[in-house]
């Protein structure tokens, strides 16, 4: 996760000094068995303790499955404390949707309670790159004691495609499909789908009315991921940031909006390259060109800052695709 990712987390609204002192203060019951804690929509800061993303958990009869671990050991401990206030069932699995710091830094807390940690095998590539530790040091400088005891840890179970987990619900075993659909927001995105309940934990693949960050994965295959999500027809979609989506119509709108933005950006950049525009030219003109085809982009939070950053990365993707076509 590069430094430019911070642009995506530019403040859209402010909680002033009213930041939650414990993640349980944000707890929401989504269904009889699904709960979520919801981070603020800001960049990481000392005041918000790095609590900028969401985490979820499902309480089955024989254990708990957790989706994402937040951005520090302390926040991970707070998720566990929140779970224990609701159930005494053991935490059996922690699924990390992707190895961005605000989603996996809390892993150590879950290792301590014996949970299996599941993620895409890309986690090992990420952790072996020196930049991951350099970024950790930068976060440590920013968050100070809030990052105490936090460690960069790999999963205990790594996947490349799909595995199924089973937990007991009543007289039956509920299937949790843990899937890597394709490269999207990162090289190793994972979603968790409960087909019997049509609940999808989407990580950072779906964005509801705000710009996705396109610098860590692949914009072309991201569109494929979104098409696959539409085929799943989820009734509840639980994203890595923002509010839980519990209206199927709203879910379709959010998925289609994310797809539209990525498609528009790719099409415009391809046209500009064909017209002889280099990367700096694209960055300078991309906001203007996007607004020509859809003026409503001007109303999207952080559009004017993040869109040129996305254009920078997508330019090289499109350029490479065009070279491969020759």
What's the structural blueprint in terms of helices and strands?
Blueprint: E1 28-29, E2 34-37, E3 55-59, E4 64-67, H1 73-84, E5 91-95, H2 101-104, H3 107-112, E6 116-120, H4 122-128, H5 130-143, E7 157-159, E8 162-169, E9 172-179, E10 191-194, E11 199-203, H6 219-232, E12 236-239, H7 248-274, H8 279-293, H9 303-325
Parallel strand pairs: 4-5, 5-6, 6-7, 11-12
Antiparallel strand pairs: 1-2, 2-3, 3-4, 8-9, 9-10, 10-11
Keywords:
about 325 residues, seven-stranded mixed β-sheet, Metallo-beta-lactamase, Chain A, about 35% helix
Which fold name is given in CATH as the topology? Answer: Metallo-beta-lactamase, Chain A
Total discrete domains: 1
Strand order in the largest sheet = 1-2-3-4-5-6-7
The helical percent reads: 25-40%
User: How many DSSP-defined strands?
Assistant: 12
Within CATH, the superfamily carries the name Ribonuclease Z/Hydroxyacylglutathione hydrolase-like
What is the molecular shape?
A: globular
Task: Specify the CATH class.
Answer: Alpha Beta
C-alpha end-to-end distance:
32 Å
Strand pairing plus helix content: what structural class? alpha/beta
Oligomer: single chain
Integer-rounded radius of gyration: 19 Å
* Total DSSP helices: 9
Low-pLDDT residue spans: 1-16
Compressed to H and E, one letter per element, the order equals EEEEHEHHEHHEEEEEHEHHH
Q: How much of the polypeptide forms β-strand, as a percent range? A: 15-25%
